[in-house]
Every structure is written in structure tokens, then in C-alpha cells.
Amino acid sequence: MTDEHATHVEDLPVHTCWELLRDAGVGRLAVWVEDHPDIFPINFVVDHGTLVFRSAEGTKLAAALADVPVAVEIDGYDASSAQGWSVVLKGRAERIQQIQELTDTLDLPLFPWQSGRKGVFVRVVPGLVTGRRFPVADPGEWRTPVSEARRAPDE
């Protein structure tokens, strides 16, 4: 990869990051569990400048609600422009408990992929939102003589 490609990385303004987040709906929640980092997939919705997801009791929820910051990463690909993008939100997670807020949250279009009891609603309040957009490299750019030899049919 040449340095020419690195110059095509575009830092995204915060409003563009939020537009991408509104359309995504699936990301990865990074948390600290005991003595190591861990990552969990989440389905989320954007709600008043925050991300909301549902969870069951367990490791993900306990780690998210610990007194340690969390991060959420969401990535996407725009086939029409052959560009990828990545948005990272860093902040704190809090359990939604106030009756009015919980009632409002029940109306959000939040549909976890995995079935089961997910009765806890969590809000990730951002401290920092960053993003970037970049051209996706042609796979041929990464091929080496060794990788080409592996791809050759056996004779």
C-alpha cells in the first residue's frame, strides 16, 4: 500500500458520524471485563445524541455498567463509492431506570437479532465521537507471490 492511499482518509465531522450511526443499527461494544478487554455485538438505536441497546443480565451488561468507560465501533461500506467508513463512540453506559425515560425507550425501534430476555435498556452517553471514511483497497494490492502460489490450482 502506498502513502498516496493514506492521504485519502477523510476525518468525518461529528454530524456525519451521527448520520452514519442512525442508518447502521449494529455495532460492537468494547468493555473491560475483570482483567481484560472484551467486545460484544449490539443492536442499537440513536436516541437524543446517545446510543441505546437492550441486554440481558450477564457479563456484557455488568461490564458496561461498571465504573469504566466503554467504546462502540460501527463500520460500513458504500458500494457505490467503494468507500468504507468507521465511527467510534467513547463514553459511559448507564442503565435506563427512570419511569418516563423507560416508557419512551420502549417505543424505540430496537430489535435485537438474538432472541431471549433482554429486559434491560442501556444508554451509552458519548464523551467523544470520531469517524473516518476511506477508499477500500483492491484486493490485488495485497497479493504477494506467496499468496498467488497458494491460489494456483494443483496440477
TrEMBL record:
InterPro entries reported in the protein's UniProt record: Pyridox_Oxase-rel, Split_barrel_FMN-bd
Highest taxon, organism lineage: Bacteria
One Pfam family per UniProt: Pyridox_ox_2
Matching Gene3D superfamilies: Electron Transport, Fmn-binding Protein, Chain A
Name of protein: Pyridoxamine 5'-phosphate oxidase
Species: Kocuria turfanensis
